Amino acid sequence: MEASSGEIDSAASGVVRWPVRVETGHYAHPVAPEVYDCVKFLLAREGSGTITGDWGERRFRMGDLMLVGSGLAIGGAPDGTATTSTIFADKDYVMDQVYWRYADVLQDRTAAETVMQRAFGTGAIMIRLNGPLAATFAARIDEIERAQTMREFHRMQAAFAEVLHLLGQLLPWSPAPSLRTLTHGIAAMVARRTATRPVRSEVLQVRNAIQCDLAHRWLVAEMATTAHLSVRQLQRVFAESLGVSPITFLGLLRTKEMARMLRDTEMTVGEMSRAVGWRSRSHARSVFAMSTGMTPEGYRQMVRGRDHDA
Q1: The pLDDT of residue 274
Q2: Positive or negative, the Cα torsion across 88, 90, 95, 96?
Q3: Where is each HTH araC/xylS-type domain found (predicted)?
Q4: Single pTM value for the model
Q5: N or C terminus of the chain: which is more exposed, having fewer CB within 10 Å?
């Protein structure tokens, strides 16, 4: 059960935009299901009732913890009154935590996304906590909320990391074997890049060439020629240095430039798509939305709204 989107928007208006946010609500009436594009961790603090969503209905009582995947509706009705605290966590931020936690067996962040999908299964997991463990979760959630109020980002990160650590011991799935299964059979099992490994010079060559002519319809074969490598070698070098394929990297550069144009120019989406090398307006919108979580129009409205507020 969660506050309505209007309540959340107004509550968040005085809070910096962070990847993790907590809302505590007191309920005496049903809340209609709403969809959020984030991962939700909902703890029942007091009372009992029914949680409703795409998976159906589930009963909850004080101390229950529910995990809900992004893009799924969730609402509910209390038995009389109930109090819940919900952590709203950016799905990409959570995916990064999963990726680095199991980096020894994951090839890239795409595999981390698959792991999250498997973990949530039908979209929601209910965990019945005992008294002391529920109190520990509540304390960590309260710590996130205090850090949010005080705008202490790393304090928030530390408290959320403790939440994830506790969840890792409670989730009803065995991560390591399933992660190894995910990576088995992938054609190119390549070494991940670590933060301490320098980026290969070939990657820098390709990056510089792309940035000099972003509008060009780049093919992987052309990138490989620029780096004096075979296509297979280039793919391996990019995976080792950046953890992504050359095509994914190209898309990220185009998305970054398109975001700059949305902030700084009055160009249309069609004009921008041609300027950064995407084949059509619809393709540009699709890739931009996949990379940023919002449409180009939504992004422009957001950044200009912030400038106006400032």
Answers
A1: 93
A2: negative
A3: 204-302
A4: 0.57
A5: C
